[in-house]
Amino acid sequence: MDLFTANQYQLLPSHSQYAYFVTEDTIPPTISGCPADISETIELGLPGRVITWTEPTASDTSGTAVLSSRSDAPGTFFEVDVLHITITYTFRDESGNTANCVFMIWFITVDTTPPTANSCPTDVLINVELGETEGEATWTEPSSTDLSGTDQLVSRSRAPGTPFPLGDTTVTYLYTDDSGNTATCVFCVTVGTVDTLAPTIIGCPADSEAFTELGTPGRMVSWIEPTAFDVSGTERLQSRSNAPNSFFTIGSTDVTYSFIDNSGNVAICQFNVTVTA
To answer: HYR domain: from which residue to which, for each copy (predicted)?
Structure first.
């Protein structure tokens, strides 16, 4: 309902009637503090977020200006699948004049979350035979996932099935997405050595036959003793059944040399000495 103000004034003495002046309110309320457009960043993958703002107010020359409607209130949860939201406040005075405050809420999606490296291998330990300088290591390669779907392998320092030197080698897989976020998968390949090879015997004598005078029980027999070599350098004579220049009775005797290394690997040299009358 429009607001009219009627004032009555008496005319001059020569007139016999009154004049009436009527005022009409056609001016809308004045809005204060209408928010500027709001830009909010939100992480990729989140469904939305709560947005808040300071609400506008209004005043009017009539002294009365009320909020007649608002599309959304501060503290409302807004879904990110809407690119932008229009917020409207409408104020009204008693004469029906209205004023609107309109601003926009814009969502800007950002991706600060790195890719996820999946199935990153645990440390790999392989052993090669003592004396070898490298070994071939293999593993199931990791993969990656990312909310953006743009993850990709940028580099890997080593591939499975390639030779690795003795000791520890760090293997690194680097993944990235289109926003430049990176993730790494890091593990260690250790190449150790084991000694499973027995020493190598050098100069193991061949079987030999010696003759003695009829009626004697036997004779002294001599030979050049064997030696041994091992890659560990720890080979040593563990035992021998007979020594050169030992007395052998008539008949056949097996002579045994046993060599061992520090890993417990054993090599045997055996030959036969036969004494005949």
So the answer is: 24-109, 110-193, 194-277
Q: Which CATH number fits domain 4-110: 2.60.40, 2.30.30, 1.10.3210, 3.40.50?
A: 2.60.40
Rg (CA), the chain: 51
What is the architecture of the domain spanning 116-194?
Sandwich (2.60)
Q: What is the CATH number of domain 200-276?
A: 2.60.40
Specify the pTM: 0.72
Per-residue pLDDT of the chain (277 residues; tens, 9 = 90+): 344 444 444 545 555 565 566 678 899 999 999 999 999 999 999 999 999 999 999 999 999 999 999 999 999 999 988 778 999 999 999 999 999 999 999 999 999 999 999 999 999 999 999 999 999 999 999 999 999 999 999 999 999 999 999 999 999 999 999 999 999 999 999 999 999 999 999 999 999 999 999 999 999 999 999 999 999 999 999 999 999 999 999 999 999 999 999 999 999 999 999 999 9
Shortest CA distance to 123 belongs to which of 164, 176, 183, 182?
A: 164
